[in-house]
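Tokens in:
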């Protein structure tokens, strides 16, 4: 018992940060007409949040699955939970040259 306890503590330290990471989801920022990161890989069930840091509005349009945000003003966010595996391309509906990709594993 005396030798096991420190090992359990060590394991807990390894497990807790990993769990905290998956709970926070994933963040994409929009700045200077660019999605960052442009390509994001997440695990199934992850909620992805886009935040517009530009001075003009942008939208998120997931073309393949018919998901479309309203126009996001500065500092506004849009979140979508990816429950199915696959590769999901998206664009800004106002500036179609802006594009990104979510890969769900
Ligand atoms: Cu835009």
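Residues out:
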């Amino acid at each position: 018992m005396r030798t096991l306890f420190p090992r359990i503590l060590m394991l807990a330290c390894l497990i807790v940060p990993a769990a905290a990471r998956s709970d926070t989801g994933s963040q994409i920022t929009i700045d200077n007409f660019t999605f960052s990161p442009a390509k994001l890989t997440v695990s199934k069930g992850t909620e992805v949040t886009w935040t517009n840091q530009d001075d003009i509005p942008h939208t998120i349009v997931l073309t393949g699955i018919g998901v479309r945000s309203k126009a996001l003003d500065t500092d506004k966010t849009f979140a979508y939970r990816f429950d199915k595996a696959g590769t999901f391309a998206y664009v800004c509906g106002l500036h179609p040259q802006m594009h990104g990709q979510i890969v769900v594993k």
